[in-house]
Amino acid sequence: MSADTLQARLAEQARELTVQAEVALADTDPEGVHQLRVAVRRARAALKTSGGYDELTAELRWIFRKLGPLRDLDVLLARFRGDTAGFSPDELAAVDRLLAGLVAERGKALRRASKALRDERFTRLVGSLDAATPSEGAAGLDLVAEIGRPHDRLRAEVAAIGTEPADEQLHELRIFGKKLRYVAEMSTGKDVKSLVKATKRFQDVLGDFHDACVAEERVRALTPGDLDEAFVAGRLVERERAKQLQMRAEWYDAWLEVDRRARALRG
Hints:
- This protein has 267 residues and is mostly helical.
- The protein folds into 2 domains: 1-132, CHAD domain (Alpha solenoid), CATH 1.40.20; 142-267, CHAD domain (Alpha solenoid), CATH 1.40.20.10.
- The protein has helices at 3-26, 31-50, 54-82, 89-98, 100-118, 120-131, 143-161, 167-184, 190-221, 227-266.
- α1 packs antiparallel against α2 (31-50), α3 (54-82) runs antiparallel to α5 and α4 (89-98) packs across α10.
């Protein structure tokens, strides 16, 4: 990858940060926060290939952390509200009462995230990312070699965890899968696109598993105010448990497809 291509990739993510920050501040679509964090991950992956941007990378980590609690609560509330198929009106009302504390918590997270996005520090971050100019030597990226590192790490982790991995081990695999995906996204070609598609599927399966585990934990920590709330809390837990079982049954096949695509690309 040339320095010009890498610079264009960084500038693209700077623009994405600007656009999605406006969406997040408007609070009309939770995808704004999600896409902000995706842009940060992509920018960090690109900077890692060029090296020498420790301060800028640290600033990207800062805004990523600031957005994390809001994103987590958006995912959690969306899951709970999406788990209510077949609930009666009284049960839906009980769900709203049960989630009132989480809604209030989200309001606080939104205010903290908005403060960070309006901060001059974020403005400087976007400007620095847009102005980053990797040298030709630093940007001489061998994508096959770069893909090989996270692929090998992922293979090693899958081999180490066995057939009955712990919940946290599956979460770690998702993180390694993200690293592979964001490196692969910096190239073009049919084979690379197939790998990106496979890693996205892998992330989705493990992400849904992790979110179901977190959702079960959070709903169990809620304090029902009445019997109706206790009843719907039990139903929500039951549905999250079912999702965990489904994703556990699917993750290994998703991994095999990632491995197959990465091996084909590496030759």
